[in-house]
């Protein structure tokens, strides 16, 4: 997760990193606040390769949609500790809330939801550091094809989630920089016309439900701590 802070270096007090976003030619560098999550899409791969719960990554959405909710299960994938905004190397992954009612579909859904919960943690840290409230989340990468996750992400943040036409933003940014360098594009303003919306999700969840889910997530995170001595 990145937040453009302009030409000013902003030092985080909420568990984020300060990174350089980009510099075009002789212009001043543009900085960002960055929040890195250790395990997101790789958790789906873990369910596929290690647990053999699904055969392909895309199947997790189909499996998750066979249940209406997570069944009270929360999956915190702190396989190598927790990154932003916690920075706890002593944490380890857990699945909590298991009952006899639980199925692999509930675990799959909890795995997807973990990415949305972790994203909210980072965004809350960014809002504290910057004083800028989130109005829209623009997403990219492989997990954005999962529409169940995108809707839940919008619900848990209570803001629209927007997926662009080109889903690999990092590669696109490198191509734009190269194009600017050789004069293929005149300036940065001309790049804005190339950006387009593929799909947008808007929040549908009631606030009470949203707050309850996130509160239970934070309870789950607290139980991952102090495992490694």
Write a concise keyword list for the protein shown above.
alpha+beta, single chain, three-stranded antiparallel β-sheet, 229 residues, 38% helix
Describe this structure in words.
This protein is α+β, with helices and mostly antiparallel strands. The chain has 7 helices and 8 strands. The chain has helices at residues 41-49, 59-64, 104-130, 147-157, 169-182, 188-192, 207-222, and strands at residues 2-6, 17-22, 30-34, 74-76, 94-96, 137-138, 161-164, 197-201. The strands form 3 sheets. Strands 1-3-2 form a 3-stranded antiparallel β-sheet, with no helix packed on it. Strands 6-7-8 form a 3-stranded mixed β-sheet. Strand 2 and strand 3 form a beta hairpin. Helix 1 runs antiparallel to helix 3 (104-130) and helix 3 crosses helix 4 (147-157). The radius of gyration is 19 Å and the shape is globular. The two termini are 30 Å apart. The mean pLDDT is 94.
How would you name the oligomeric state of the polypeptide chains in this document? single chain
Largest beta-sheet characterization: 3 strands, antiparallel
Overall geometric form: globular
Count of runs of 4 or more consecutive helical residues = 7
* Weakly predicted, low-confidence segments: none
Secondary-structure-derived class: alpha+beta
Overall pLDDT: 94
Strand order, sheet with most strands: 1-3-2
Termini separation comes to 30 Å
Order of helices and strands: EEEHHEEHEHEHHEH
**Proportion of β residues?**
5-15%
Query: In which range does the helix fraction lie?
Result: 25-40%
Number of DSSP E strands? 8
Give the C-alpha Rg: 19 Å
């Amino acid at each position: 997760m990145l937040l453009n802070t302009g030409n000013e270096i902003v030092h985080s007090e909420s568990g984020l990193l300060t990174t350089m976003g980009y510099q075009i030619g002789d212009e001043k560098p543009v900085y960002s606040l960055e929040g890195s999550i250790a395990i997101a899409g790789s958790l789906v791969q873990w369910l596929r390769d290690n647990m053999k719960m699904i055969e392909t990554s895309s199947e997790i959405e189909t499996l998750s949609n066979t249940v209406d909710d997570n069944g009270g299960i929360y999956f915190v994938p702190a396989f190598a500790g927790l990154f932003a905004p916690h920075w706890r190397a002593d944490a380890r992954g857990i699945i909590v809330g298991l009952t006899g009612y639980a199925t692999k579909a509930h675990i799959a859904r909890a795995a997807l939801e973990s990415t949305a919960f972790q994203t909210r943690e980072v965004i809350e840290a960014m809002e504290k550091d910057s004083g800028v409230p989130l109005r829209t989340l623009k997403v990219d990468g492989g997990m954005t094809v999962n529409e169940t996750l995108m809707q839940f992400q919008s619900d848990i943040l209570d803001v629209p989630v927007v997926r662009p036409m080109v889903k690999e933003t990092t590669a696109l940014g490198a191509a734009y920089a190269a194009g600017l360098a050789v004069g293929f594009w005149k300036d940065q303003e001309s790049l804005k016309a190339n950006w387009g919306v593929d799909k947008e999700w808007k929040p549908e969840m009631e606030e009470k439900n949203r707050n309850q889910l996130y509160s239970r997530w934070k309870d789950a995170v607290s139980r991952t701590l102090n495992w490694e001595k």
